[in-house]
Amino acid sequence: MAERTLNCAACGAPIEVESRFTTLVVCQYCGQTLYIHDDAVDPTGKTAKLVDYGSRLALGKAGTVRGRRFKTLGRVRYNYEGGFWDEWFLRFDDGQVGWLEEDEGECTLVFKTRLTSPLPPFDDISVGSVVPVSQMRVFITEKGTGSVAGAEGEISFAARPGEQIQYVDGNAGGKAIRLVITRSGIDLSTGEPLEFHDLQV
Ligand SMILES: [Zn+2]
Q1: How many domains does the chain have?
Q2: 24 alpha carbon to ligand 1 midpoint, in Å?
Q3: Which residues contact 157 (CB under 8 A, 6 or more apart)?
Q4: pLDDT tens-digit profile of 140-177?
Q5: Same domain for 159 and 98?
Q6: What is the pTM of this model?
Q7: Do residues 132 and 174 share a domain?
């Protein structure tokens, strides 16, 4: 059920926004990317259609993750040296939102949380070291650079296609940690890797 209905600023098509957390929506008819402010939309350019590769998830598709029902509202794709990874924006039946990171078929359910401590400069973070991140001690397993490839559907932050990003991956106390550093800030996600049967679609 739509939280609100807007009209595409480029082609006029109706756009149903399903989560109150959504700040960016891509018109499914013309590919226009629109930022949502209050109940108005701002066009920001077109996004290339994302190529599918046999993911179990798809836009608008419902499913369960560890028994919790969700609907897939949108997706952001990041390019990096190793290829790309997708982040699917999920809305659970109780209204909570989360993200499912998918990298070569490996899925991790993550929730964005606020970064409460300053992060050392990206260049000073080395793989194999332990870095304090928001009261956690994170063992760093990977870092690199990439870019936002594109988005579709609706998502809860402003992903500008082509924007350069830096990422840092690690783990702390059995949780997977990912930091994505963009021009607008640092995005911290914590979550748990999923087994194949944890996700039913
Ligand atoms: Zn449109």
Answers
A1: 2
A2: 13
A3: 23, 24, 187
A4: 999 999 998 888 899 887 777 888 999 999 999 999 99
A5: yes
A6: 0.85
A7: yes
